[in-house]
Amino acid sequence: MDAFLLLNPLFCFLTAASFLAWFALKRRRTNQQQRVQPPSPPRLPILGNLHQLSALIHRSFHALGAKYGPVMLLHFGSRPVIIIQSSAAAAKIMKAHDLVFSDKPTTRTLRQLFYNHKNLFIAPYGEYWRKLKSICVLQLLSPKRVQSFRFIREEEIAICFEKIKACCSCSSPVNLSELFTSFTNDMTCRASCGKKYSEGEDGRRFVRLLTELMQLGGRVNVGDFVPWLWWIDRMTGFDRRVDRVAKEVDEFLEMVIQDHLNSRGLEIGETGHGNHEDSVVRVLLNVYRDNTIDRDSIKAIVLDMIVGGTETTAAALEWTMTELLKHPNVMNKLKCEVRAILKDKNHTISITNDDLEQMHYLRAVVKETLRLHPPIALLARVARQDVEVMGYGIPAGTMALINAWAVGRDPATWDEPDTFKPERFIGSSIDFKGVDFELIPFGAGRRRCPGIGFAMAGVELLLANLIHKFEWELPRSEDSDATEQPGSVTARKNPLFAVATVAQF
Ligand code: HEM
Hints:
three-stranded antiparallel sheet
């Protein structure tokens, strides 16, 4: 070989670069071939594993997990999805690799309903999401602001009492499911929009729209997982329905914003105490004026609060009362605790945060309920890059579904996992704030729920009051059926009825 060529630096550089590129390519191919995949049930050509899933998808995963283990690979159509069903594996996704798994999967429907990803729930991880999350955590749902909404909770609890007393006086059972839904709906609406929109023509329309939005958003469509079958959603009229609901929700939220702009500084709360100055919309309008967010962002965040805070909190209340009614011994123990602390405090307004802090058994009851019945059973994430989880190679773009329902029933963590036993939390430091991966009803890591304080303030105050002021039992006709309703929030399929009598002190 010509000595000149050998010494030519450009030639040497090119040779070295080609060799490195060849080596990197070879290594990548070998890695891909050697990537160990999680165990996976056999699948069908077009559907993948979709045919193995029932409407209660978290239960199907749990059943498959008994055979394939806590990390398994399924295919939704052509899309690979890893299913995570133990606390150790959940910690890998939401702690060790939290940044890698900080994106959320989305669908065409969600994009249309939530302002093209401008809400916090599905916004991709990045600058915009970080800005929104900090507004939410520091301004909209901070402990101080949650405390400032206390008068709303008190007024709404007083309304619940009136409804319960009306049932007592005509000896009819109370529809607790309905009561909890209107309580959480009105509480969240007043905090977000400055007044409640559940009454009158506009209110009824909004409640109907929200129900429809939840149904559409929670639906799994073939077109989302088998892209070439997109036309089915158009043929069935689904796409038209989504367009209509998105348009009507937008008109409604525009009206809420306009209401705020028209009533600047005026007290217009429906009960005479509400004030637009306190509301989430008002705070967001101030941020908007600083040009930090746009008008669609305001509407998307308000929608997040209402959608994220209403059904979830109502389901938590509904499941807690379901378990208490099924376990009279737990109900009695709770009654003793609550009544010993509150004694003759007969008005909600006199129950202090210190009183609630002392109710350790109440807190244990709520934790145990959320362990067995997390309102959002599946936490969804997407891998932003290739990653190794528990020895398995997970390629970028893979969806991860963490089954919070199964994690709460993992026999490796929980003794007698299917038994309702609040005592397990007495003297235990395990909490649901996202640090202990055995109990993740609010998720964990960067995408953790920012509404824990808001939700728990309402749940604890209402439960303490219900137990303090009334005696509760199941109607004679009612068996303790507690079948779940399929959907994005796991609530009871049939409404919960209970007979109330005013407690005698
Ligand atoms: C018992 C009631 C509630 C439960 C069980 C619940 C549960 C959850 C869960 C599981 C997540 C996903 C977390 C993850 O993927 O790691 C979440 C996210 C979220 N929740 Fe809640 N939530 C509740 C109440 C609320 C309330 C009251 C609000 C607001 C008023 C709220 C607003 C949100 C928002 C905005 C997100 C998205 C956070 C993000 O992606 O960064 N939630 N919630």
